[in-house]
Amino acid sequence: MLPCSSSSSSRFHHYCMEYFSVVLPFLLILSSLFTLSEGGSIGVNYGRVANDLPSAVKVVRLLKSQGLERVKVYDTDPAVLKALSGTGIKVTVDLPNEQLFTAARRPSFAYSWVEKNVLAYHPSTQIEAIAVGNEVFVDTHNTTRFLVPAMKNIHAALVKYKLDDAIKVSSPIALTALQNSYPTSSGAFRSELIEPVFRPMLEFFRQTGSYLMVNAYPYFAYESNSDVISLDYALFRENPGVVDSGNGLRYFNLFDAQIDAVFAAMSAIKYDDVSIVVTETGWPSKGDPNELGASVENAAAYNGNLVKRVLTGGGTPLRPHVNLTVYLFALFNENKKVGPTSERNYGLFYPDQTKVYDIPFNLQQLKNYRDSPSGGSGNNRISKGNNGTVGGSSATHGHGYPGQTWCVANGDEVKEKLQAALDFACGEGRADCRPIQPGSTCYDPNTLEAHASFAFNSYYQKNRRAVGSCYFGGAAYVISIPPKYGKCEFPTEY
Fold first, then answer.
1. I need a surface site. Which of 218, 257, 303, 488 has the fewest CB within 10 A?
2. Residue 169 forms beta bridges with which residues?
3. Which residues form the X8 domain (predicted)?
4. Contact 362, 304 (CB under 8 A)
5. 115 is known as an active-site residue
């Protein structure tokens, strides 16, 4: 029976209706506030590939002043972990890829690593997770087979020190770990990774109560497919949505579609009970002329609308009741990162700690946030030459391969610079580096120059041979005859 039903006495009915006319709006306000507070959580990645960043103490003050309560770092630098002590900021630390082999083979190393890099700071520094490696499947050093054993040894060390309930162990994957991602419902992991890696890894998460870390960048998908993906769809702005032909669900933003593709991949191998944390996502505020959509306006719209979408609660269409924890990439522009201009311009702040653009980071700041569409800024199309390639960069140079060019490594560059550029191409650059893995078609010749050339060319071709996409800080250059590295054939398109 309703509290003010007509079956009540007329006198009671009158006072009841009067009472609820006053109280009900207040209850609805409380309900909406409660719903708002039940949303997800926003964190930030604190990368330090730069030579002009403020001290760790100043960075922690910045985090506190902005109301940021979660931070992810890419190492276990003592200065950073000490500066975070006593702040209440939750921290995710990283065991780097180059240590996976040792952590997998030697439990004693894992115990020592946890003792030195976690136990020495926790709980004063509130470490809540350890990222074992980062995007390991595209690591050119082929450390994939060491990932799960390393994770298990690190977890065993946490158990030994009675930290396993407080600190979770996971590893960030890139979306290149998916074999299929469109339509979203067809999401599937790469077949060669399912049995050796994903099944045991997801089983480990299930048993330990951990979660899968995912790095998702709608910017890359938009930039490469702007002819079919609308900018509004990528930036969480009003749009008609996209219906998934497999499950009938309608998606109104690319971020949700990407995350649900991972959920679908997990469900396909019967691990739909494992949760996800988005450990990296972002949008560059500046790029090269060929980097479509990289602008301050678009970066502000993507990150601002993403924060609003996460903090106000509600999951994805496939998992509507699961709130997300999302880490924005990145805290600062990092001037020593290799690759195109965009790589050095993902920061929310300049090194002098001023904002690149103004967005909210918490519920209080969200009250005054409004996305201000600027009439399509950042949505300019690059003119194409008569041969259909961006900027005419595939012009021939006196050889008999009209319209074809390739990108190769500069063998005269120092080894460290080539290696850094190779790591970028196969990692954040999303080049197809599977053919240069051991046993694959282009592994031989097993030289840094040959492997870098294949990766650079993959990145170059995937970016439609755009001007600036074969630079890598001077570590690469364009040629107009097919490269010759053993029997390996370099593709001219993807």
1. 488
2. 130
3. 405-490
4. no
5. no
